[in-house]
């Protein structure tokens, strides 16, 4: 295993992290939040020191970086990044328990949005900003960012493909343009552009700048940390609708936007995953609106809440405008289903991904037909292109890993004695990077009451969910660490 | 530059490696997904799976924005169709096609116009020409030319007891009594760009630049005796064999081909009535002996399997054939083969790649582009010829005053058709051809790139 090359990469990521902590530090200096300033300074110094140390230790890295190094590097870098990213919370004294601070940061980077804080509004502005900004960073991925700004010859190797593959969600990751660096740049350009657009729309609705920035970060990364205790519920209907639209936009595969940008509009609307995604969202909205028709005064309000909640859950953002825990079972069941399906592959959203669901449905249909015509030769096609058996196998393996982790986590966190529904939805909410679950972890509650062990497990679940299981799972495999 | 390579085979993969290293945006097209997957893992490229002659596939690969299309699939007809269609979709595109069927050989010139081709490569014919030159002037492992054939860069191995053993380069002229320059040395599979203090050892493979005339003197003075080849034995009867047999026959050399496939033998015998075609297994030592391996002057192994070629060449080495040429495909530039006594190793794939790389570099910068690029020393060094123009810095200044980057030497200056081995007082002026040798990883696109900035 090429530890030095990995160390080099991680040190770069940490340098980037320090730079991104700066705005939060400036905000807390501006508002004269003493403890927070201390928290950030300490955090930044420690992060910088770690980065420098890694940089010095790993100067003479040899070549040779393969799939294994790529996966381990992604998993390790996310863990290190979270461990250091939580220091400002911890040292500022606002989240006194280290595990809680780590939970909050991992929840931020993985764009989950699950919180252990009962009162968000008491947090200092610097910390609030950093908390939301972790969403934005984690949404598109820090490694992708490092690839975009990186220089040097090692970029010309193919190995960067492993990094992109490990960090970008989806059953099949493809580059937009031949060079990895350019692909990463395009992705970040689109990401920044859409985020700015979101901020502009929010400002136009009269939201204060700080709230607009934090909300946009939460939306862009499909994270869900708000700056208010009641999430988005307190804002005007216009702002809620803006959020709904942008959440849905960030749940779309970014290659669709690239195709739009290079004027291949026809191909975008023919994209089967996009159709599946929008179709599922629309159907869910209508079904829920019909189911909760008595709850709200007007049709507009009913539709608005239904649409917001569906968009929020399906894109795995986790904002809320209403306490959907009070909704009837049918609506809650739909939301639970959406939690699992998740957003599109190649978006900032989490979950099982629409693309994978589509593949599963198609291969299931094929297997059923195979029973009727045992000798029929058939291939699975998406967007007119044949899906290789290997991708299908991987999708099945992913489903198996997914199911095992959900069941395992569900059993372990049940030790803390909450109701089965609470525990099940908590696991789903963390593993799919959504945030709020149902009952005791519903939109108005938080994860603060879980015990030490459960929190750690949920932290691992969040990371595994964001990185699509294998980069985290591989860290626990013996053969990863034993020589080649 | 945006380059599309269609056909991810041996040549396609080698080109990909070279062109990615030079910083181009490469899109690969192939019909096989598995092949593409391997390339995607190794190089920073984009892969498109599909038939490269279909407009849909070309469009997905971005042919509209591409600048160069290189088509290297196994079928000439597909290559032609692909280039024609791509040219129709993007008239500004440079298209390079591989055409290797001997039946098309004589119509290539016309086809270039008809099919919108910018360049046609025929690796087998090119390799045959290369081999013919080696056979006509034996003594070297490899020879490449510059300045339209007037200057050569040749490779030879220093054997035990050679006059060159333990000779320091500062003293070389006194030993060989002619003007030559050792511009690169391969020692223990590592390329070295030597300076005056470098001492040659037995086992070194050295690369020498000199004018063609001086080379003859050089060979004589170091005691390599050469005589004209009279009989050549070619093992394997593929396209390369056909081209080579034809060329050698024109030179008046007796040619014998051993080929395993009977139908192929028949067609060779039809096409080449003056060549002896033997039907049999060339790896059979008995057959080789019966066909007179002991008496032939040249053994060329040209079967489709590298391992087989190496094996037959080893048999040839044991039978003390004066000159052996081994064709390699997959295994070319393999360091392990350095030590084997298998004579010259020639890889059609590498020759073809050199040409295409040179062409691509020429498109990249229209002025000051390289005239010729020859990859030497197992791909670890390059010898490049440039023409000095108005933009070249330090015209007329003596070389000893110039600060060149590490691992770069000026290996020759060609002025008004007279070639000079440069010393510290030499200089170049506008219109001269300058040959440089570089062992650096970076690409030297123009002459100005060799100076320390």
What fold name stands as the CATH topology of the largest domain in chain B?
Rossmann fold
The spatial strand order of the largest sheet of chain B comes to: 3-2-1-4-5-6
**Structural class label of chain B:** alpha/beta
- Biggest sheet layout of chain A: 2 strands, antiparallel
CATH architecture of the largest domain in chain B: 3-Layer(aba) Sandwich
Continuous helix count of chain B: 13
State the name of the first-level CATH class of the largest domain in chain B: Alpha Beta
CA-atom Rg of chain A in angstroms? 22 Å
The level of helicity of chain B is 25-40%
Indicate the multimeric state: heterodimer
Most residues in contact: chain pair: A-B, 19 and 17 residues
Strand content of chain B: 15-25%
Order of helices and strands of chain A: HHHHHHHHHHHHHHHHHEEHHHHH
Shape of chain A: globular
Q: Span between N and C termini of chain B?
A: 24 Å
> How does the overall form of chain B come out from the CA principal axes?
globular
- Strand fraction of chain A equals under 5%
Low-pLDDT residue intervals, each spanning 5 or more residues of chain A: none
Share of helical residues of chain A: 55-70%
Secondary-structure content class of chain A = mainly alpha
């Amino acid at each position: 295993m090429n530890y030095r090359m990995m160390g080099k990469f991680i040190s770069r990521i940490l340098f980037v992290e320090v730079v991104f902590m700066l705005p939060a530090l400036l905000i807390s200096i501006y508002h004269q939040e003493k403890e927070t300033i201390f928290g950030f300074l300490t955090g930044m110094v420690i992060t910088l020191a770690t980065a420098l140390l890694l940089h010095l230790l790993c100067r003479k890295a040899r070549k040779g970086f393969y799939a294994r190094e790529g996966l381990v590097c992604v998993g390790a870098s996310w863990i290190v990044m979270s461990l250091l990213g939580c220091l400002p919370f911890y040292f500022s004294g606002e989240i006194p328990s280290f595990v809680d601070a780590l939970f909050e940061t991992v929840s931020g980077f993985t764009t989950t949005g699950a919180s252990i804080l009962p009162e968000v509004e008491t947090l200092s502005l610097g910390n609030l900003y950093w908390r939301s900004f972790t969403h934005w960073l984690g949404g598109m991925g820090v490694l992708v960012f490092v690839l975009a700004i990186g220089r040097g010859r090692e970029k010309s190797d193919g190995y960067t493909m492993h990094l992109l593959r490990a960090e970008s969600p989806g059953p099949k990751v493809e580059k937009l343009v031949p060079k990895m660096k350019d692909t990463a740049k395009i992705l970040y350009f689109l990401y920044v552009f859409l985020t700015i657009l979101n901020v502009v729309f929010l400002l136009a609705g009269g939201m204060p700048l700080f709230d607009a920035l934090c909300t946009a970060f939460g939306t862009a990364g499909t994270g869900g940390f708000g700056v208010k205790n009641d999430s988005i519920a307190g804002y005007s209907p216009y702002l809620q609708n803006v959020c709904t639209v942008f959440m849905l936009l960030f749940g779309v595969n970014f290659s669709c936007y690239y195709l739009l940008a290079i004027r291949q509009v026809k191909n975008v609307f023919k994209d089967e995953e996009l159709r599946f995604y929008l179709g599922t969202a629309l159907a869910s909205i209508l079904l829920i609106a019909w189911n909760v028709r008595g709850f709200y005064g007007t049709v507009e309000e009913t539709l608005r809440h239904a649409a917001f909640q569906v968009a929020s859950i399906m894109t795995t953002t986790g904002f809320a405008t209403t306490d959907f825990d009070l909704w009837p079972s049918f609506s809650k069941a739909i939301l639970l289903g959406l939690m699992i399906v998740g957003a599109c592959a190649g978006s900032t959203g989490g979950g099982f991904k629409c693309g994978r669901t589509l593949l599963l449905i198609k291969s299931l249909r094929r297997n059923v037909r195979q029973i009727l015509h045992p000798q029929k030769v058939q291939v699975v096609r998406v967007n007119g292109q044949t899906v290789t058996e290997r991708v299908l196998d991987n999708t099945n393996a992913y489903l198996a890993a997914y199911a095992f982790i959900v069941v395992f986590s569900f059993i372990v966190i049940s030790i803390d004695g909450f109701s089965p529904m609470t525990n099940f939805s908590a696991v789903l909410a963390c593993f799919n990077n959504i945030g709020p679950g149902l009952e005791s972890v519903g939109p108005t509650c938080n994860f603060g009451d879980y015990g030490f062990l459960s929190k750690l497990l949920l932290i691992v679940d969040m990371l595994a969910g964001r990185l699509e299981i294998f980069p985290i799972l591989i860290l626990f495999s013996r053969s990863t660490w034993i020589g080649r | 530059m945006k380059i599309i390579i269609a056909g991810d085979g041996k040549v396609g993969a080698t080109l990909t490696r070279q062109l990615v290293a030079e910083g181009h945006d490469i899109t690969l097209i192939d019909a096989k997904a598995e092949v593409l997957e391997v390339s995607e893992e190794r190089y920073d490229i984009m892969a498109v799976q599909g038939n490269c002659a279909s407009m849909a596939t070309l469009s997905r690969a971005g042919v509209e924005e591409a600048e160069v299309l290189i088509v290297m699939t196994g079928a000439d007809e597909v290559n032609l169709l692909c280039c024609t269609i791509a040219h129709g979709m993007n008239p500004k595109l440079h298209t390079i096609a591989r055409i290797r069927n001997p039946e098309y050989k004589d119509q290539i010139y016309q086809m270039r116009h008809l099919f919108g081709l910018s360049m046609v490569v025929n690796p087998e014919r090119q390799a045959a020409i290369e081999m013919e030159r080696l056979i006509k002037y034996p003594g070297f492992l490899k020879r490449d030319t510059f300045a339209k054939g007037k200057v050569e860069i040749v490779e030879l191995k220093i054997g035990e007891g050679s006059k060159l053993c333990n000779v320091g380069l500062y003293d070389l002229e006194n030993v060989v009594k002619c003007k030559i320059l050792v511009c690169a040395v391969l020692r223990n599979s590592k390329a070295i760009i030597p300076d005056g203090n470098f001492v040659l050892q037995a086992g070194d493979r050295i690369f020498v630049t000199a004018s063609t005339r001086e080379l003859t003197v050089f060979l004589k003075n170091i005691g390599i005796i050469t005589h004209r080849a009279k009989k050549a034995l070619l093992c394997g009867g593929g396209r390369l064999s056909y081209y080579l047999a034809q060329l050698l026959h024109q030179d008046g050399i007796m040619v014998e081909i051993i080929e395993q496939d009977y139908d192929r033998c028949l067609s060779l015998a039809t096409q080449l009535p003056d060549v002896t075609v033997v039907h049999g297994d060339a790896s059979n030592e008995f057959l080789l002996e019966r066909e007179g391996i002991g008496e032939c002057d040249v053994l060329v192994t040209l079967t489709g399997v590298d391992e087989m070629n190496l094996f037959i060449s080893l048999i040839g080495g044991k039978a003390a054939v004066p000159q052996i040429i081994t064709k390699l495909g997959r295994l070319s530039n393999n360091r392990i083969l350095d030590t084997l006594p298998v004579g010259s190793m020639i890889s059609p794939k590498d020759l073809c790649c050199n040409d295409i790389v040179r062409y691509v570099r020429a498109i990249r910068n229209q002025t000051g582009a390289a005239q010729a690029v020859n990859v030497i020393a197992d791909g670890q060094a390059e010898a490049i010829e440039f023409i000095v123009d108005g933009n070249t810095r330090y015209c007329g200044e003596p070389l000893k005053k110039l600060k060149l980057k590490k691992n770069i030497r000026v290996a020759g200056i060609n002025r008004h058709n007279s070639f000079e081995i440069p010393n510290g007082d030499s200089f170049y002026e506008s219109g001269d051809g300058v040959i440089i040798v570089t062992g650096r990883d970076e690409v030297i696109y123009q002459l100005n790139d060799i100076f320390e900035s």
